[in-house]
Write a structure and sequence with these properties.
The complex is a heterodimer of chains A (302) and B (365).
Chain A (H helix, E strand, L loop, with lengths): L1 H37 L2 E2 L10 E2 L3 H7 L9 H31 L6 H8 L1 H4 L2 H12 L6 H8 L7 H4 L1 H26 L3 H9 L4 H29 L3 H5 L12 H10 L4 H33 L1
Antiparallel strand pairs in A: 1-2
Helix pairs in contact in A: 1-14, 2-14, 3-9, 3-11, 9-11, 11-14, 13-14
Chain B lengths: L3 E9 L5 E10 L4 E5 L6 H9 L6 E6 L2 E2 L10 E4 L11 H11 L4 H15 L14 H14 L4 E5 L7 H18 L2 E6 L2 H7 L2 E6 L2 E6 L1 H6 L4 H6 L6 E10 L2 E4 L2 E2 L2 H7 L6 E6 L4 E3 L8 E10 L3 E8 L5 E7 L11 E6 L5 E4 L10
Parallel strand pairs in B: 3-8, 3-9, 6-7, 7-8
Antiparallel strand pairs in B: 1-2, 1-4, 4-5, 9-10, 11-12, 11-14, 12-13, 14-20, 15-19, 16-17, 16-19, 17-18
Classes of the chains: A mainly alpha (302), B alpha+beta (365).
Bound molecules: adenosine-5'-diphosphate (ADP) and magnesium ion (MG).
Chain lengths: 302, 365
């Protein structure tokens, strides 16, 4: 019987797979597992006198415990800020990415070069672009922003300290827009040309064709972009570190930056682990929501 | 009333391809015209120019005498059915049909009435709330036709609407579209590469090749009087047989190779004496040679396609070795088994003669 043959075949395959399985497991799962373990341990680097002991959920409750509604732990503020910054970034990326992709979904000379140039921000390291934005562009004295504002007779306000969240959102959007553009453009180019022709015969104008035909047809692409973008934006760290450094105060803290500060400033590995774990949970919950809505739509008309 | 006139219409694409070359066609009111030709001959481009989806490079397009060249598709009062249905996948069947009407700001009750009416005609009433994904190919095709009907256009344009359907469904939809044409008294321009479709559906067929119109006429007229070698070869299944030979005058009678030219044809052919010509013999224009008659063609049966009522015999000619196809009644040709010698007569009055060089037919009516 071929069955027996297959069985023997499979059995002898396993040992050869093992190295790959181990490598993948170590590479992908071990760092997270370590984080998880740390989050249950009392471990303060600046207090070597205190033993590293199992600490239950106390690292979590330190952040989550609500003593009174008027003085919530700053974790809640940072959590809220992270959600706002991430969602606003994804929102702007979606809207601008869609409009930009619509704009570039034409076969005109030079369009391929333009498309490639648009991808620029995506390829620059976020720390590098953060430094450039902070010093070369947004600086009120030497930056283009300052120079131009002064030339126009205005007094430039320091955006980084007055509008830290908006600045961070703008920079995140700048960095991730190309990714959205690329995915949405791929979606637009995959639309059956006959559908667009059909809409023309039906009398649809640009607005109707764009928002009633094209947009619904690329919603899946958009959702995939949002899902992937979410995973990356939520843990974006370099841009914050090099521009606002979470400041002023904690006004542009996000969870990853909080984790970083908890380790390198507060030296508390256990609490950092708890924060990191909660960030991952937040990401998983959001990704899951989007994924389900994609599944629902697919069941409907793909 | 809706009469469509294409006057010397050409299409040159930006890359220099002349896809449609000086095409002149008149489509009368309520006429079913089929554009037919091999793939890439410019049928779709012609149709798309009528629809307004492609600019017309030169020439004039008139609908009911009005110049349409610069009108937007929506202002031409046409409806188009695409090969791959082109249904909006995110809309239900109802929404698909209603979309164009909503844009035209037609009152909701009127839209509802039209959609339901079309759905009834096409027997898709029970699917109105489904999305295209949940429909079979045939049902999708009906929805696409329904979407055209509700627009109540002056002209229906079909671009190979049946190519994606299986053979049985194709025959059925063919009949339905013909019935629909009668019922709506519609003017239809229908594109296909399938000559059987063209023959069975069209009031008038336009045979195209390389962007040029080869012949325009009623299907049977074109079948019996092809304007050139290409049309003769393209229309008809199994295809016409060609025999290349020299036209000779033997003592007052014209001979094409061994075949004596019918007296009725001799007049038109006399100018071509001494030239290379091609004789076209339709498969059904062969007869079994009766005893005593030597027959015009003889050969060995190489293959038999029994179709029930008749047999298509593939025969290798003795003199030239050319394989030709004869379509003979099953009863009379039953004795012709594989490998047997067959002696066949030819209905000489039905033969077609073409200039070997230009392909033009000598006999024209
Ligand atoms: N957008 C286009 N740009 C350049 N050439 C085209 C374009 N569309 C069609 N063609 C060319 O025009 C010719 C006719 O095409 P088409 O009308 O689609 O043929 P058919 O429908 O008869 O198969 C083909 O040679 C095709 O390659
Ligand atoms: Mg075509």
């Amino acid at each position: 019987m071929p069955d027996g043959l297959q069985f023997r075949h499979k059995k002898s395959d396993y040992p050869f797979l093992l190295p790959a399985v181990i490598i993948v497991a170590v590479m992908t799962q071990v760092p997270f597992l370590m984080t998880l373990i740390f989050s249950f341990i009392r471990w303060n680097l600046s207090r070597p006198d205190m033993a590293r002991v199992f600490y239950g959920l106390r690292n979590y409750t330190y952040f989550l415990r609500i003593r009174s509604l008027s003085e919530l732990h700053q974790f809640y503020g940072v959590f809220f800020q992270t959600v706002v910054i991430t969602l606003m970034t994804l929102l702007f990326c979606s809207i601008l990415g869609f409009l930009l992709a619509i704009l570039f979904d034409h076969q005109v000379p030079g369009v391929n070069i333009a498309r490639t140039l648009i991808l620029g921000p995506f390829f620059v390291m976020s720390t590098a672009s953060g430094v450039i934005w902070k010093t070369t562009i947004l600086n009120t004295t030497f930056g283009w922003y300052g120079v131009i504002a002064k030339a126009l007779g205005m007094t430039p306000v320091d955006l980084i300290s007055y509008y830290p969240k908006a600045t961070v959102i703008a920079l995140f959007t700048w960095q991730w827009l190309p990714f959205f553009f690329l995915v949405i453009l791929a979606g637009l180019q995959g639309i059956d040309k006959d559908l667009v022709d059909c809409a023309r015969i039906d009398g649809a104008n640009w607005w109707q064709t764009t928002f009633k035909i094209k947009l619904p047809l690329i919603v899946n692409h958009l959702q995939v972009a949002i899902m992937l973008g979410l995973v990356f934006v939520i843990k974006e760290f370099g841009l914050i570190l090099t521009t606002t450094a979470g400041g002023p105060g904690t006004r542009s803290y996000t969870l990853p930056y909080y984790v970083y500060m908890e380790i390198f400033s507060a030296s508390n590995v256990g609490r950092a682990g708890a924060l990191a774990t909660m960030t991952v949970l937040l990401t998983l919950v959001l990704v899951n929501l989007i994924y389900r809505s994609i599944q629902r739509r697919n069941a409907q008309y793909r | 009333m809706s009469k469509v006139e294409l006057k010397n219409i050409s299409k040159v694409f930006p890359d220099g391809v002349r896809a449609v070359d000086n095409v002149t066609i008149t489509i009368e009111n309520e006429e079913f015209v089929v554009l037919v030709g091999p793939s890439g001959c410019g049928k779709s481009t012609t149709l798309r120019m009528v629809a307004g989806l492609e600019d017309i490079s030169s020439g004039e397009l008139l609908i009911d005498g009005e110049l349409m060249n610069y009108r937007e598709p929506r202002d031409r009062n046409i409806a188009m059915v695409f090969q791959n249905y082109a249904l909006y996948p995110h809309m239900t069947v109802y929404e698909n049909m209603a979309f164009g009407l909503k844009i035209k700001k037609i009152p909701m009750e009127e839209i509802d009435r039209r959609v339901k009416e079309a759905a009834r005609i096409l027997d898709i009433e029970q699917y109105l709330e489904r999305r295209p994904k949940a429909l079979s190919g045939g049902q999708r095709q009906r929805v696409a036709v329904g979407r055209a009907i509700v627009r109540q256009p002056k002209v229906f344009l079909f671009d190979e609407p049946l190519s994606n359907l299986d053979a049985k469904l194709r025959v059925q939809m063919r009949a339905e579209i013909i019935a629909l044409h009668k019922r709506l008294a519609a003017t239809i321009v229908y594109v296909t590469h399938d000559q059987v479709e063209a023959m069975t559906m069209g009031d008038k067929i336009v045979v195209m090749k390389d962007g040029l119109v080869q012949q325009i006429g009623a299907p049977l007229h074109v079948y019996h009087n092809p304007a050139n070698r290409f049309v003769a070869g393209f229309i008809g299944s199994p295809p016409i047989n060609f025999i290349k030979c020299r036209l000779e005058d033997r003592g007052g009678s014209l001979y094409a190779g061994n075949i004596r030219v019918a007296d009725g044809h001799a007049g038109a052919l006399r100018t071509a004496v001494g030239r290379e010509i091609e004789v076209g013999i339709r498969p059904e224009d062969f007869t079994i040679a009766i005893d005593g008659d030597s027959g015009e063609m003889s050969g060995t049966v190489a293959m038999i396609e029994p179709l029930g009522g008749e047999n298509n015999l593939h025969i290798d000619a003795d003199d030239t070795g050319i394989r030709f196809i004869a379509s003979l009644g099953a009863d009379e040709s039953g004795f012709l088994h594989l490998g047997r010698k067959a002696r066949l007569g030819i209905k000489k009055n039905h033969l077609k003669y073409f200039d070997a060089e230009t392909g033009r037919a000598f006999l024209t009516e």
